[in-house]
Amino acid sequence: MFLWTVLLIVLMSAIAYVAGRSRAAGLVVADGPRLHSLPSYHGLLVAAGAMLGGLALAILSALVLGTQSVVTPAAAVIGAAIAAVPLYSRSAADFRARNAFERVVLVVLVACSAVAVLTTIGIVFSVLFETMIFFRSVSPIEFLFGSHWSPTGTPASFGLIPLLVGTLLITVIAIAVAGPLGLLSAIYMAEYASPRLRNVLKPVLEILAGIPTVVLGFFAALTVAPLIRRTGEAIGLDVASESALAAGLVMGMMIVPLISSLSDDIINAVPQSLRDGSYAMGATKSETIKRVVLPAALPGIVSAFMLAISRAVGETMIVVMAAGLAANLSINPLDAVTTITVQIATLLVGDQEFDSPKTLSAFALGFVLFFFTLALNYIALRIVQKYREQYD
Amino acid sequence: MNAHVPHQTLVTPEKPRALASGQFKVTARDVDVYYGEKQAIKKLSIDIPDRAVSAFIGPSGCGKSTFLRCINRMNDTIPTCKVTGLIDVDKHDIYDPKIDVVQLRAKVGMVFQKPNPFPKSIFENVAYGPRIHGLAAGKTELDEIVEKSLRKAGLWEEVKDRLAQPGTGLSGGQQQRLCIARAIAVNPEVILMDEPCSALDPIATARIEELIDELRQNYCIVIVTHSMQQAARVSQLTAFFHLGTLVEYGDTDEMFTAPQEKRTQDYITGRFG
Ligand SMILES: Nc1ncnc2c1ncn2[C@@H]1O[C@H](COP(=O)(O)OP(=O)(O)OP(=O)(O)O)[C@@H](O)[C@H]1O
Ligand SMILES: [Mg+2]
Asked: DSSP assignment of A23-58, as one string?
């Protein structure tokens, strides 16, 4: 039925367009008043009416009678006709179809953004709601400040701290790897590399961004982690077979392209006149970059880093495979740790009762994660605002 | 091109009456500049005296900026640009591979058409050059250099209470004077100005022209301008460029009253350009 409904709405709109357009074209008479809007605008307006009317009634009928009902395509046709006919008969030489269509465009755009915003709000509230239920069985104090995480143990304990520390540890390692690598390679690409080299380098780096994280994950678990373990043992260190370091390193590799690609664009956006001004003072290239280009690009670079941090905090696959599930409270990069995202994933895998604290704790973790990224985005936004308009 | 060899008035040390010193600061011989295949400057020779203002005039696209940028090797930043011939500053070939471009640019400063203050404070803008060249031993000395440069640029009184504010927050004319202060803070000997007033109103222009006239006592100044009046007001020598060649170069007063070339006369009187 769905296909039929869509086809009929498209068909009705097409008919409406042709009809509206030819009626408007018919209004043109020699020596008569000029048409305010071109005939195609009359057509577009009638077609837009048909499409919106058809969609509205079809959705309504689907909601009331179910998507499989035969009434839905019929409702689409009726809705299209109801909306299109008044518009069709309104067309006259002085009817401002062009301006009216502009309003239709506005309404459609607003509706689309409203859907995106409302969905986000809906998700946040549903997570918040489940979190509230979770806090009925586990106190927020225990959740936020507890230092022991073992949702399946007896008695179960839900202390967030080990997960938070694990998340931060891996993120810090990842940024420590990706920050300098990404930024320096961006500087190289933007300021030093010849255009030809740049055209090769940039896509290659972006391929790195396209590698699925599952692949990076088993690379971390099967190649990097054993390597670190062997190296560590060779110099007499005690390394867990799944370590925060392995996960952090590989995660760092994952976000290098993100940082370098964004920073490269930002550095390129710094006006050439600033560089010229610096060179004309007798500054060398690296002095110019350090003292003029990077300060001018700072807000953008900061927001690139914030985006990268959000990516790292939200990353799951690499950590599941490389860092393990053990909720150790440790800041030693050679230990196995776990992160918020990994725990959410493992909590919801397999058979679930949806009202056990174990399952509900995933929502609480999700809420923490959401709050974390929100805070990061807010900080990034503030930094950008503070330093914006420094050059024009 | 026809076989016509452009007539050039090579300025002699005695020639322009306005000149006191009689020293040539910049000399160029048979300079050709190419952007890729396209030749922008053809066989250009010129002698630019010290402690005087030379104005470059000529129709758009005739190579004024291109030649100006040769004198401090700013053309090095354009990959396609190739310069041949000889350009000396103080009798040293500046395209000699052994020369230090960074030192050259400290000695030959430049002010651009569009004011381009750095997105830093007013103080930091002026302190930029002295800092990178290590001209100041300490904070007090740096303060002195900054004040002296801003005074010379005629901006001190207007900004002395807000040195910590961003240079980009100044008006266009103030920004341009800030850029001049920035350029003179490193004690250059030559100052190149590429249409420094084209973005400014008449009052700000008058301020800058006054400033140029004062700076003339100590510097060799080359200014590109599209305003005949400006050339006549501020310069002692004028060079007329056309299609990549130097058509005529000489005493400004003579040039504007009795040019030797028909093309110069046509341009000055506005018959083409
Ligand atoms: N970066 C460049 N790449 C290629 N060609 C260039 C470049 N810069 C200038 N040219 C060319 O060289 C010629 C001289 O340009 P130049 O900028 O020196 O002219 P100009 O006399 O300063 O003109 P205007 O008065 O408009 O500033 C022009 O034909 C121009 O198109
Ligand atoms: Mg120019």
From this structure: HHHHT--TTSPPPSS-HHHHHHHHHHHHHHHHHHHH
CB neighbourhood size of A213 (10 A) = 18
Decide which of B1 and A214 is more confident. A214
Contact B129 A279 (CB under 8 A): no
List, chain by chain if needed, residues with CB within 6 Å of any ligand 1 atom.
B 35, 38, 40, 58, 60-66, 78, 80
Average pLDDT, consecutive stretches of 10 residues, N- to C-terminus, chain A (392 residues):
88 93 85 83 92 91 83 89 89 85 93 94 92 89 88 83 91 94 94 90 86 89 88 84 88 92 92 93 93 89 89 87 82 85 84 77 90 86 70 50
What residues of chain A lie within 8 A of the CB of B199, using their CB? none
Task: Count the neighbouring beta carbons within 10 Å of the beta carbon of residue A81.
Answer: 18
Domain span holding position A198: 149-387
Query: How far, in Å, CA of A46 to CA of A255, rounded?
Result: 49
- Chain B contact set for A278 (CB, 8 A): 118, 128
What ipTM describes this predicted complex? 0.87
pLDDT recorded at residue B18: 41
Closest residue in B to A390 (Cα–Cα) = B119
CB of B39 within 8 Å of a chain A CB? The answer is no
Candidates B254, B256, B249, B250; CA nearest to B230 is B256
Same domain, A102 and A189: no
Number of domains chain A contains: 2
| Count of other CB atoms within 10 angstroms of residue A334 | 16
Could you give the 3-state DSSP secondary structure of residue B81? strand
Residue span of the structural domain in which B186 resides: 17-253
β pairing state of A157-158 and B92-93: unpaired
H helix intervals, A154-293: 161-187, 195-210, 213-219, 225-234, 244-269, 272-280, 285-288
Q: From CA A330, how far away is CA A319, in angstroms rounded?
A: 15
Q: What is the pLDDT of residue A237?
A: 81
Number of domains, chain B: 1
Which residues face B232 on adjacent strands? none
Cα angle A101, A107, A108 (rounded to 5 degrees) comes to 90
Residue B185 has pLDDT above 80, yes or no: yes
Q: Give the pLDDT mean for B200-224.
A: 89
In the prediction, which pLDDT does B200 show? 79
DSSP labels, A252-264: HHHHHHHHHHHHH
Of residues B72, B119, B133, nearest to A296 (C-beta): B119
Q: Which residue in this structure is represented by tokens 């291109």?
A: B66
Do both A174 and A237 map to the same domain?
yes
User: Does any domain span residue B260?
Assistant: no
Residue B8 DSSP label:
-
